[in-house]
Design a protein that fits this description.
By secondary structure, this protein is of the alpha/beta class. It is about 35% helix and about 25% strand. The chain has six helices and seven strands.
């Protein structure tokens, strides 16, 4: 069976670029739809939905740029951004989109974890707790892609142009953030 709907969850702060070689093997057919998903996990509740809107817009811009630069032109890509706990949101997205395969990029255990496992056998897991939850609870196939690279989209590319200099309205004037706050009376 060849999967036609594939989910690729990505973290834009630690995007594993080498996962795109695995994805290319699955998605070079025109009937395949690849869903790129970024889950924004905030530890706070924002009083204003504007924060969520800006984070979603920024993540969407980075995912679009990743799709253009690293996916084969024949690949049909859909971009989604969700808010919540990553494992739960990945599972919900897989169910909502009727995904047949999740390509889950995961980093191997750290040097420290492997060192601790010498003294405590079984202390070092092969995959993270989040990946274990997805594998255990998922109703579709899960392909674990062992990756090594970590690419921070914001650090490498900067903020998207529409988010670089947000404006703040002050009474009677328009002030751009980052500009000096000097105001002189009549000078």
């Amino acid at each position: 069976m060849k999967p036609e709907r594939i989910l690729l969850p990505l973290d834009i702060r630690e995007c594993p670029l080498d996962v795109f070689t695995f994805v290319e093997g699955f998605s070079k057919r025109p009937e395949v739809t690849l869903i790129l998903l970024h889950v924004v996990h905030l530890n706070i509740v924002s009083p204003d939905s504007r924060v969520y809107d800006e984070l979603a817009l920024q993540a969407r811009g980075y995912l679009e740029r990743l799709a253009v630069q690293f996916l084969h032109p024949i690949t049909s890509a859909v971009i989604h951004v969700r808010f919540g706990r990553p494992a739960d949101e990945i599972l919900e997205e897989a169910q909502a989109e009727k995904v047949e395969l999740i390509i889950l990029p995961t980093y191997g255990p750290s040097f420290w974890s492997r060192l601790v496992s010498v003294w405590k056998p079984g202390a070092c897991g092969i995959v993270s707790a989040m990946a274990e939850k997805i594998i255990r609870d998922c109703t579709c196939g899960v392909f674990i892609a062992s990756v090594k690279t970590r690419f921070n989209c914001e650090r490498a590319w900067g903020r998207p142009p529409e988010l670089k200099r947000p404006s703040v309205e002050l009474p009677g004037e328009r002030l751009r953030l980052g500009e000096p706050l000097h105001r002189f009376n009549g000078v």
